[in-house]
Amino acid sequence: MALRNIVKKGDECLNKKCREVTDFNSRLHKLLDDMRETLIESNGVGLAAPQVGILRRAVLVMDTNNDDEIIELINPEIIETDGEQEGPEGCLSVPGVWGIVKRPEYVKVKAQDRDGEWFEVDGEGLTARCFCHEIDHLSGILFDTRAERILTPEEMAELSAAEDDEEYEEYEEYEEE
Ligand code: CO
């Protein structure tokens, strides 16, 4: 496995429509393994192939409701949505920018796994948001174009303070064990 460079907004890879994956071979597996390592290293919750410069329909989504399991989605399609959520969203390719984006609360996806087998997977909350965000990348759509508004520096500081508190609480729980 190897880390791949994450391209940033302004790189034309991020605005292109990705092509279907047709070969479920060792090159695809290497790409997915590298993307997994890159996602973990970057502390992200999702990564799309165009973010590492590969214009193919492949994404990773971290299922934060399920032990941070990383789901590989090849040629994914959203087949069902329900409800609505509105909240802050960011992207590894748009560092330092957060925007308020409306997404469905529940999303069901149909996709192929790394060997080409079709399966369905669903998620709610952050996982549903992540399915939408990553699949958008495959159409060349970045979250900031969907954002109702971009957070101010003060709001971003509040958001990161809230995240720090959460991490602290997790640490406390661990200490008690
Ligand atoms: Co993104």
Describe the structure.
The chain has 177 residues and is of the alpha+beta class. The protein is built from 3 helices and 8 strands, in the order αβββββββαβα. The chain has helices spanning 26-42, 126-137, 153-176; strands at 46-48, 58-63, 69-82, 85-89, 99-103, 106-112, 118-124, 149-150. The strands form 2 sheets. Strands 1-2-3-6-7 form a 5-stranded antiparallel sheet. The chain has a 3-stranded antiparallel sheet with strand order 4-5-8, with helices on one face. Strand 2 (58-63) and strand 3 (69-82) form a beta hairpin. The protein starts with 25 loop residues before the first helix and ends with a helix. The mean pLDDT is 93. Bound molecules: cobalt (II) ion (CO). Residues 91-93, 133, 137 line the site of cobalt (II) ion.
List descriptors.
177 residues, alpha+beta, five-stranded antiparallel beta sheet, three-stranded antiparallel beta sheet
What gross morphology would you assign? globular
- What would the average pLDDT be, to the nearest integer? 93
Cα(first) to Cα(last) distance is 34 Å
Number of helices: 3
Uncertain ranges: none
Which structural class do the helices and strands define?
A: alpha+beta
Strand content: 25-35%
Helix content: 25-40%
- List bound small molecules: cobalt (II) ion
Count the strands?
8
In which order are the strands of the major sheet placed?
1-2-3-6-7
Radius of gyration over all CA atoms, rounded: 16 Å
